[in-house]
Design brief:
Rossmann fold
């Protein structure tokens, strides 16, 4: 599996709050022996905090791209990592990893966005069904290497809108660009995107969630929300996990969103867009 070695685009939507919520969930719900901690893609300061909270004796960062792993190692100034290892997400069952806890913080959208494209070529649109299958495979492989009582720690964006269509007034060029970016994202998924002049658009629930994400963090390559919270509950429960989660908006998002667009109908407000999740293996 190809993993991106490109830097994540910066935007108004900070993940600090979601990282803090994940740390809080660990505080509340994890007790026991988590000696061996494995982090997918390196979570930076979050990794440092979680290692301390879990009392882990050994920490390994894995990535499928050797160059990206070298960059992460060079940038690691907090020093909580004992081992850096090239491991493809699809090779988890055959790896010699023996984790008590796995961190997947703001990384699974790379699986969806890259593996869901033909040959991982970002010039192509995403095949939604293929991307979802790849995420489920990675999650299933992660479940297979966790023993009973092991923990999977996830921070991610979610599809938050549900129900009917959402009409949005676009106040700025930034908002209009985010809406236009939805037109060519997917190969095999029909989104309702109906323009009503240059500054109004009517979107179905999933398209509205994707618009909010594209406005928060503009990125022509990565699509960050792909599951609803209920999708996460069902998928991980079926893989043998019990869940604890928190959902919210990222810090600093509300003011930025209000300056860029306004919801005219279909929803009273913007639902939670980010989720922190602790899944305990039964």
């Amino acid at each position: 599996m190809t993993q991106s070695n490109a830097p994540t685009p910066t935007g108004v939507a900070s993940t600090n709050l979601i990282d803090q919520q994940l740390t809080d969930l660990v505080d509340r719900h994890l007790e026991g022996d988590f000696k061996n901690l494995v982090d997918f893609g390196h979570s930076g300061e979050l990794l440092k905090d979680l290692r301390w909270k879990l009392g882990s004796e050994h920490c390994t960062v894995i990535h499928g791209n050797e160059n990206a792993l070298d960059q992460l190692r060079s940038a690691d100034v907090s020093g909580p990592v004992d081992q850096w290892k090239v491991v493809d997400f699809y090779d988890l069952p055959s790896s010699d990893l023996d984790p008590d806890a796995l961190i997947m913080a703001n990384v699974l959208h790379e699986v969806y966005s890259l593996e869901g494209r033909a040959g991982n070529d970002t010039c192509f649109p995403i095949n939604h069904e293929l991307g979802m299958d790849c995420v489920r495979r990675v999650l299933g492989d992660a479940a297979s290497i966790l023993k009973s009582g092991g923990a999977l720690l996830i921070a991610t964006e979610v599809l938050g809108f549900d129900g009917g269509d959402v009409e949005i007034l676009l106040k700025t060029d930034e908002a209009r660009q985010a809406a236009r970016s939805l037109d060519n994202i997917f190969m095999s998924r029909d989104l309702k995107i109906e323009w009503q002049g240059d500054d109004r658009v009517c979107l179905d629930a999933d398209a509205a969630s994707l618009f909010v994400s594209a406005f928060d963090v503009p990125d022509r390559v990565m699509v960050r929300p792909f599951f609803t919270i209920e999708d996460w509950r069902v998928a991980l429960h079926d893989m043998g996990f019990d869940l604890r989660l928190m959902a919210s908006a990222p810090e600093g998002a509300d003011e930025h969103r209000q300056s860029g667009y306004e919801i005219l109908s279909g929803a009273e407000n913007i639902p939670a867009t980010h989720m922190a999740l602790v899944a305990l293996k039964r």
